Each structure stands twice: as C-alpha cells, then as structure tokens.
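INTERNAL AUDIT FORM
Audit reference: QA-55
Scope: verify that the stored structure record matches its stored sequence.
Auditor: D.O.
Record contents follow.
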Amino acid sequence: MTNDRKTSPGSRFAHINVDHLAGLAERIAAGEYIEGPELAEKLRGHGSRPIPEPILAHICRHLDGTVKKPKGRKPWSALDRSRHDMIIGGLYRRYLTYLKGRERRYGHHAGWTVGDYSPGETAARLVARHFYYGEESWRSVQNIASRK
C-alpha cells in the first residue's frame, strides 16, 4: 500500500491544503479592522507560501501605523450577548416573583426599597442597580427580560 500524501515529518496533516488567508482579503477590502493577533495566527498557519498582494499591503499599512483601530467598544459575540441577556432576564423574573409574592402576603411589595414603584419597576431597578449600568437603565432590563 503506497502513501500518496505529501506529508512532512513535523506535520501530521500537511496533506490537507488549507488556505489560512481565505476570506481575509475580502474582509480587508470591506474595510473591516483585523486585530494583530488574528493576523499573526493566519500568517503562521499560511506557512512559507507567497502572501497575496492585498494582504501584504494591509500588513505593511498595519506595521506603518496607518491602519486605525475603530473607536468604541468591541461588540459582544452572539454567545456572550445571549448569556448576558439570560442572566439579566432570570434575575429580573426572580426579583419580580419575590416582590409579587410579598405584595400578595403583606399588602406592599417591599419595605426595604425606596420609592413608590410597581413590583415590575422595582425588580428592574434592583437588577439594573446591581448587575447593569445603574438604576437609570431599568427600562433596558425590562426590555431584555421581555425579549427572552
């Protein structure tokens, strides 16, 4: 049985011809910012093959410092956003259940919170104060909870 694979002794999967720079030229052409570590990882995986011209030009601009990093926060991944919304929504529902039960038993929903708010608003304010961007963002907490 002959082995037609073009493997080098150091690489188990050298016979698989993977283009590590696939899609990178399109992202550069679209104007997307590519982080340095991601660029380095793609280049390491590319090996000693020639680098396409658009990618080489981008690397030169990146090293010159003419590629500007976008301002603002980096957006969350879909998984992180989903996890965050799940936690906020769960805490809101937990507080809301507690406050409604307290209102049913004692006639008022909470004696330890300040303000004449409904149980829903109080629960949202508690979650926003402790786990979100402050009590002023209680509407955002209600929107997140109603979305899930």
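Auditor finding: record pair retrieved intact. The two ends are 58 Å apart (CA to CA).
Action required: none
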